[in-house]
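Sequence, please.
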């Protein structure tokens, strides 16, 4: 029989809203997993700390918290910038609720809803909708092109058999090679056509394999640094597809660096994280961070679409293929960029093995 306290604990642990409880001295006495994720620190290190040690708001919140405690009235504020102790910022809606019980010390319940997280989900859903529509259009276009292309190639082969000299046959070979090249290009634009063969995969083994391949390709002007979280569990993934996706993204980062630079491979775990319309208890985050010039806002909106590239000699297919491969795993790829730092994040659900 589950006790009432256990039920309450399970409810709090399952909430996507960060929930923090403070005593009258504004010291933290409870925080749920969503709160740990928001602040980026575990409860073990947070409990007992004063509000001012955890975060700072740009507006004078402390007097408002004190007023709520003394007036016994809750209040809500929208779109406040939350500056965390380790320097990160979050845009949140927050609600403060005074908990007043007879013969007990009053407490303050603070609920924080990350607005930037909601915007991220909305942008991701919009991008996925656009990409689905684009792929459907490409499939129809590819079908219309492949039929006459096959006829063109077949006619060139028949013509070649009628030609008497090797010099003339060189022209038909050009037609055949170009027809094959166009067919291969169409296939690449459509992305992978095989289902992922998923097995328990250590993402760090995959990253090390990709890092070794890239190190062979680049010279000493580019440094590849590692910042791994060794506690990340295995993920269900197709190892070869994961290698291909990471290889495309890291090569893209290398090509973005002008002369010399640094690429950081970082792994972390996200808790209670939403990808598309699915919410996962655990998600593996793989960040590929380069200190190149960055990607402008206009290009950021379309870099995952096929045939879109900012380089004169680029094919515009690497990131599109990587996105398709990761989506087959129920994951997603995000991009954040500003001059001096571009981060591509691969998000992969971690399935419970209980």
């Amino acid at each position: 029989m589950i006790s009432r306290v256990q039920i309450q604990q399970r409810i709090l642990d399952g909430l996507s809203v960060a929930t923090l409880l403070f005593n009258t001295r504004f010291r933290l006495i409870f925080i749920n997993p969503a709160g740990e994720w928001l602040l980026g620190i575990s409860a073990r290190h947070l409990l007992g700390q004063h509000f001012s040690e955890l975060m700072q708001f740009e507006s004078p919140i402390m007097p408002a918290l004190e007023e709520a405690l003394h007036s016994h009235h809750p209040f809500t504020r929208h779109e406040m910038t939350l500056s965390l102790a380790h320097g990160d910022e979050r845009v949140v809606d927050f609600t403060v609720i005074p908990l007043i019980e007879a013969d007990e010390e009053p407490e303050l319940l603070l609920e924080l809803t990350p607005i930037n997280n909601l915007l991220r989900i909305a942008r991701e859903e919009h991008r996925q909708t656009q990409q689905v529509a684009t792929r459907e259009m490409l499939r129809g276009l590819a079908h219309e092109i492949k039929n006459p292309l096959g006829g063109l190639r077949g006619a060139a082969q028949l013509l070649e058999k009628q030609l008497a000299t090797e010099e003339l046959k060189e022209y038909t070979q050009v037609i055949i090679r170009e027809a094959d090249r166009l067919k291969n290009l169409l296939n690449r634009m459509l992305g992978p056509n095989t289902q992922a063969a998923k097995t328990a995969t250590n993402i760090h083994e995959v990253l090390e394999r990709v890092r070794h391949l890239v190190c062979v390709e680049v010279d000493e002007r580019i440094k590849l640094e590692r910042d791994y979280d060794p506690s990340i569990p295995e993920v269900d993934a197709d190892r070869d597809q994961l290698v291909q996706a990471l290889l495309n993204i890291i090569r893209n980062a290398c090509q973005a660096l002008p002369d010399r630079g640094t690429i950081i491979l970082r792994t972390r775990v996200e808790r209670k994280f939403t990808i598309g319309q699915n919410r996962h208890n655990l998600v593996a985050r793989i960040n590929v961070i380069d200190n190149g010039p960055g990607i402008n806002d206009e290009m950021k909106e379309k870099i995952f679409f096929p045939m879109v590239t900012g380089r004169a000699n680029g094919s515009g297919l690497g990131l599109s293929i990587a996105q398709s491969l990761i989506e087959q795993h129920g994951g997603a790829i995000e991009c954040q960029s500003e001059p001096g730092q571009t981060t591509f994040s691969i998000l992969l659900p971690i399935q419970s093995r209980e």
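The longest strand covers residues 261-275.
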